[in-house]
Amino acid sequence: MVNVLKANRLVGLHSKRATSIVSDNGAGANPQLGDSLIVRAESSRANLELDGFAQLKGFLDPEETSKVRTLVDETLKLPHETACARPNNMLVPLRWNDPIVQLLLRSESRIRELSRAMGADDLKWISGYISIKEARSPALWWHSDWWCWDHAISFRREAAQVAVLTYLDDTSEVNGALRVLPGSHHASTAIHAVLPEAHSRSAEELDSDHEAMKDLPDEVTLGLGSGDAAVIDYRLLHGTHPNSSQARRDCILLSFTPSWRRLPDDLKSHLVQHPALPYETEHPEEAGFNPGLLPTFDGPRRSLTLSRNAPAQFEMSE
Ligand SMILES: O=C(O)CCC(=O)C(=O)O
């Protein structure tokens, strides 16, 4: 396992180790900046593969961030679906035609930036959520978002699915910053053996002194600023610090598959049915949605049985 990061550091805007990519917002399109952008993006790809995460600084510019924040406030004022109200974190699902998803995905250079960061050769968008950490809420427990641990693809080095978490507030250990366990996407750690299954009842009943809620010696806190994003392998163990501040802390979580064409058919068949994606009766192209980002699958639709528990012990083969 590669674990080059030192324990318990705050990887923030000033980190030398953290990958920092100048976001689109013009920079990607500038031929004078083009080369350096690619070099930095490639090192981000290396980070994603080796450590299980990478950072994209300034993924949204301040104006876009403020627009998304307004859209989030509007969404939360109206009656809304709650995908998952787990203790200390709430996820509100977003479909393809939600203005928040459209704002994030309409920029071609932002999509190029994501593709480079992931080393994607056939990037497809799968799902979206607003992830809310209420004021004065305890830590979000250590978990992985991967849902298919009993499939052989879980033990391939490349990520089958990734989450892109874009923060709308400056985050720190005080207000619910994301924390990650580098390398935990490729090899088990001691904590894997004591984690409850994600989304299970036992996960909802964790006391604050449970191992899954605590600081871990090898954790890395991503001190992301508003408009910055983290790209994480779906298998990576992550969670958040408590939000001890008086203000809600919001983030937009979008999930993608970096290489749709290389996914096995059973995964494609499952993922293509995600309710965030357009139904047959909907017309994303007419709504200006980039059709190239939508997964397609001609075979029969079959759902896989969810398997959210990583083995207590595992290690990727080369
Ligand atoms: O809101 C966050 O910072 C993290 C959310 C998260 O870990 C998740 O939804 O899996």
If you had to describe this structure to a student in words, what would you say it looks like?
- This protein has a 7-stranded antiparallel β-sheet with strand order 2-10-7-12-5-4-3. The chain has a 5-stranded mixed β-sheet with strand order 1-9-8-11-6, with no helix packed on it.
- With 318 residues, the chain is of the alpha+beta class.
- Mean pLDDT is 84; it is low at 1-42.
- Helix 1 packs across helix 4.
- It is built from 6 helices and 12 strands.
- It has helices at residues 31-51, 62-77, 99-105, 108-118, 201-204, 265-271, and strands spanning 9-12, 53-56, 84-86, 89-94, 124-133, 140-143, 162-167, 178-180, 220-223, 229-233, 238-240, 249-257.
- 2-oxoglutaric acid is lined by residues 89, 91, 131, 133, 140, 145, 165, 178, 238, 240, 251, 253.
- Estimated structural class: alpha+beta
Uncertain regions spanning at least 5 consecutive residues = 1-42
> What integer is the average pLDDT?
84
Rough shape?
globular
| Estimated share of beta-strand residues | 15-25%
Number of helices: 6
Tell me the name of the CATH homologous superfamily.
Answer: q2cbj1_9rhob like domain
Total number of distinct structural domains: 1
Ligand inventory: 2-oxoglutaric acid
CATH-defined architecture: Sandwich
Order of helices and strands: EHEHEEHHEEEEHEEEEH
Strand order of the largest sheet: 2-10-7-12-5-4-3
Main beta-sheet strand count, sense and barrel state: 7 strands, antiparallel
CATH class, anyone?
A: Mainly Beta
Distance between the termini: 10 Å
- Overall helicity: 10-25%
